[in-house]
Specification:
Elements lengths: L21 E4 L1 E6 L16 E4 L14 E10 L2 H6 L5 E6 L1 E3 L1 E6 L2 E6 L17 E6 L10 E10 L5 E3 L3 E4 L7 E8 L5 E8 L5 E11 L4 E12 L4 E7 L7 E8 L5 E6 L14 E2 L4 E4 L7 E2 L2 E2 L5 E5 L5 E3 L5 E4 L5 E11 L2 E11 L9 E4 L1 H4 L5 H13 L9 E3 L24 H10 L3 E6 L16 H11 L3 E5 L3 H6 L6 H16 L6 E5 L6 H4 L7 E3 L8 H10 L13 E3 L7 E2 L6 E2 L4 H13 L4 E3 L8 H7 L2 H7 L8 E6 L2 E7 L5 E7 L5 E4 L1 H7 L4 E6 L4 E2 L6 E4 L4 E8 L1
Parallel strand pairs: 21-28, 29-30, 29-38, 30-31, 31-32, 32-33, 33-34, 34-35
Antiparallel strand pairs: 1-12, 2-3, 2-4, 4-10, 5-9, 5-12, 6-11, 7-8, 7-10, 13-14, 14-17, 15-16, 15-18, 18-19, 20-23, 22-26, 24-27, 25-26, 27-28, 36-37, 39-40, 40-41, 41-46, 42-45, 43-44, 43-46
Helix pairs in contact: 5-7, 9-10, 10-12
The structure holds alpha-D-galactopyranose.
The site of alpha-D-galactopyranose (GLA) has 11 residues, from loops.
């Protein structure tokens, strides 16, 4: 997040005004290098190169990596714009973005900053896409009215492209309507409602008209129109509820027309819509019919079966050594000898019964399909506690997510104490009163227990790491019943800096060491590497017997982050995934997240969330829910619990998908499935809705002509001849296709 300055009063909304007096400048003087003298208005920049501030410097003949460049914009600001303004408290500077980080000076005074510069306390941090809108107090702003002003930008770029880009310099006084805000909220009831709330934060009464339409973006049809005249005093709001259909995409469009000026503000919002059909009440198995375990390791597996409870589980030919809990479908016990053990499990309730032939494969390999579960990081961050973990785990059971295979319950960073016990064993902090109790409780429910550490002295969150105590820690994990270890490089960076030869072996070393001790434990511990993809971890993850490896830095709940991690960074990694070995593009960012006690709804739009889950199933990625499950809504449950979508993720062939068509903003990714068919994600990565002629691309897939086609989210068969699909911006059509 951008640092805030005393001068900055408010973050501006995207509602800028048309028609009011606005000063716009696109040209700047430019010089590479770094010199604080260049912030001063008196400096002579007449010999500097001219540059356009809306396009990166690479486009204009400058390639500067790990380097600084300065821009100086000269602008005359007429006093009349302030005199004529209705709102005289602030003046607004909307500025180009700074790639990757930088500072802005107005007549020599620092007025804004994005990211972190190399010399800064926290070190370099990119904020290349951060908006730069600054509201300066009019009576404090260092402005030379009716004369030359210099806005100087000190920009640091780490890697191409770099420099200022995006928008020109725009300076204006706020208009009355800048005080208007729009908020949208959704309510479920007999009729589903979306309430548009109009607010006014400015000390003038806003008089105008608000019009809210509900439309179907697919056909362009307007489904309803609601009009209202408003007279809004400061800090007052007015609510306009409108009905919409949440079983498909609807758009709620609001236009506010300011009475006196006729100025219009508009905003569109897509409420969450649920495509996944409700599960039948009768039992249905939602799992891959196979489970891998090592000889002698405890079998911990809960049959994921949806349907009304109570449900009764029975088995036939259950191998000796295994047990099946009749109430919750949890498989227990152990098998000492290698081999495939096949038996039948039946689930029965008041509405019917279902059976599955299931194989426990006792051998060297675990995680035959990619892991599914929950991790505390994306919701609670360092504020995680045992209570919070148990509350999400309980919700995984109560809300039916365990019936879809979500079984790992992983505690991320911040369970560790500040100091080890006197005997060197790892100690927990007081948020985790009973680790063994937690493990036992999870196992009794057929769930699995995950934990987090670092090969270094400290974790990323500043808690104790495992260095020099790897054996002891692995033993502690075993004594608590740990089934999953996320081992996060972080603090090891300091150790690594001491290495003379920074070759691949140096990256491998700490992971090999922990692997040795994990494998000495009499239980299966899923080994999850987290070192952000350094030294092509996908090439040697298997060598350290890792079950998955993070391929990138941390994900966050924005389109840019998900797009970059999911689409750009995974595209070439498909050859490295297979049963037992998975690429991990990081945890899910749906539901309520926040990396702290302050949770919020994921900032991804509903379509971006469909894209996110679709892509992660195609990628055979770890599917670790990152939200507080106790607060999960039915939209998010629909995203996570679609049995046909999840069947792609859990497909036993274990192949990772790849992009097969890239046509402008359209990408088609395919994943080959064990039944000979293909899962195809048809993604619209552009910022406009599109109607896609899928027929055009079938040939390019090179599998022959279409035999059958099914919409996976909607669970409906599709025509094999009518192939035109509406795909919303950042959205997806997810199909399963077989060919002849
Ligand atoms: C790193 C990891 C995250 C999380 C935090 C915990 O940033 O990549 O997933 O585990 O550390 O501090």
């Amino acid at each position: 997040m951008r640092k805030r300055f005393a001068l900055l009063l408010l973050a501006l909304t995207s509602l800028t005004l048309a028609g009011a007096q606005t000063i716009t400048v696109k040209k700047a003087a430019f010089q590479k290098g770094d010199n604080m003298e260049w912030s001063k208005p008196s400096f002579d920049d007449s010999k500097w190169q001219q540059m356009d501030v809306t396009r990166n410097w690479d486009d204009q003949g400058q390639v500067l990596n790990n380097a600084f460049g300065w821009y100086r914009v000269h602008v005359t600001i007429p006093k009349s714009i302030a005199d004529k303004a209705e709102q005289k408290e602030t003046i607004l500077f909307d500025l180009p973005k700074m790639d990757d980080a930088g500072e802005v000076y107005l007549n020599g005074k620092l007025i804004g900053k994005t990211g972190g510069l190399p010399g800064d306390k926290g070190g370099y941090r990119s904020a290349w896409n951060a908006p730069q809108s600054y509201a300066l107090k009019l009576n404090e702003a260092p402005i030379n009215w009716d004369a030359d002003n210099v806005l100087a930008f000190r920009v640091y770029n780490a890697g191409e492209p770099g420099g200022l880009f995006d928008t020109p310099v725009t300076i204006h006084m706020p208009h009355r309507t800048d005080g208007i805000s729009f908020a949208f909220s959704e309510q479920r009831g007999k009729k589903d409602l979306c309430t548009v709330t109009l607010g006014n934060s400015y000390p003038v009464t806003q008089k105008g008209t608000v019009v809210v339409t509900v439309s179907d973006p697919e056909t362009g049809a307007t489904l309803s129109t609601t009009k209202k005249s408003v007279s809004l005093k400061k800090d007052k709001t007015v609510a306009v509820p409108v009905a919409y259909d949440r079983s498909k995409m609807n758009a709620i469009n609001v236009t506010y027309t300011d009475g006196p000026s006729g100025l219009q503000l508009t905003k569109s919002y897509i409420p969450k819509y649920i495509l996944t059909p409700p599960a039948p009440l009768a039992p249905r198995f939602n799992n891959a019919p196979v489970f891998g375990v090592r000889p002698g390791s405890p079998v911990i597996y809960r049959f994921p079966v949806s349907g009304e409870r109570p449900m009764k589980f029975t088995s036939s030919n259950l191998p000796e050594g295994l047990t099946l809990n009749a109430e919750n479908g949890a498989l227990g016990g152990k098998l000492e000898r290698r081999g495939n053990y096949t038996f039948t499990v039946t689930a029965e309730n008041a509405h019917g019964k279902a059976s599955q032939e299931f194989t426990v494969r006792v051998g060297s390999q675990i995680a035959l399909t990619p892991p599914m579960g929950w991790n505390s990081w994306n919701c609670w961050g360092l504020s995680v506690s045992q209570e919070r973990v148990m509350s999400s785990a309980q919700a995984i059971i109560d809300k039916g997510l365990a019936d879809y295979g979500y079984c790992y319950i992983n505690v991320d960073d911040a369970w560790e104490a500040r100091e080890r016990n006197a005997d060197g064993t790892i100690a927990v902090n007081d948020k985790f009163p009973d680790m063994k109790g937690l493990g036992d409780w999870l196992h009794a429910n057929g769930l699995k227990f995950g934990i987090y550490s670092s090969p270094g002295d400290y974790t990323c969150g500043g808690y104790l790491g495992s260095i020099d105590h790897e054996k002891q820690d692995a033993e502690s994990y075993n004594s608590w019943g740990v089934d999953y270890l996320k081992y996060d490089w972080c603090g090891y960076g300091r150790e690594f800096d001491k290495e003379k030869d920074k070759n691949t072996a140096a990256y491998v070393r700490p992971y090999l060491l922990m692997e040795k001790y994990l494998r000495e434990q009499p239980r299966d511990i899923f080994y999850s590497l987290c070192q952000y993809g350094m030294a092509n971890v996908w090439e040697w993850g298997e060598f350290v017997d890792a079950n998955s490896w993070r391929t990138t830095g941390d994900i966050t709940d924005t389109w840019a982050s998900m797009y970059n991690i999911g689409f750009v960074r995974q595209a070439k990694l498909y050859p490295y995934a297979k049963p037992g070995r998975w690429n991990d593009p990081d945890m899910l960012i749906v539901g309520k997240v926040g990396w702290s006690s302050n949770l919020r709804d994921s900032r991804l739009t509903p379509d971006e969330q469909y894209t996110h889950i679709t892509l992660w199933t195609i990628l055979a990625a770890n599917m670790l829910i990152g939200c507080d499950v106790s607060q999960i809504d039915d939209f998010t449950i629909g995203l996570l619990c679609n049995n046909e979508v999840n069947a792609v993720h859990q497909d036993i062939l274990g192949k990772q998908g790849k992009p097969v068509v890239i046509d402008g903003d359209l990408q088609i990714w395919e994943r080959e499935l064990s039944d000979g068919s293909y899962a195809l994600g048809i993604f619209n990565l552009g910022s406009e809705n599109q109607t896609v002629d899928f027929g055009k691309y079938v040939k390019q897939l090179e599998h022959g002509s279409l035999k059958s086609l099914r919409d996976l989210w909607r669970q409906q068969d599709l025509s094999t001849s009518e192939l035109s699909y509406f795909i919303p911006t950042h959205g997806v059509k997810y199909v399963k296709a077989s060919f002849k």
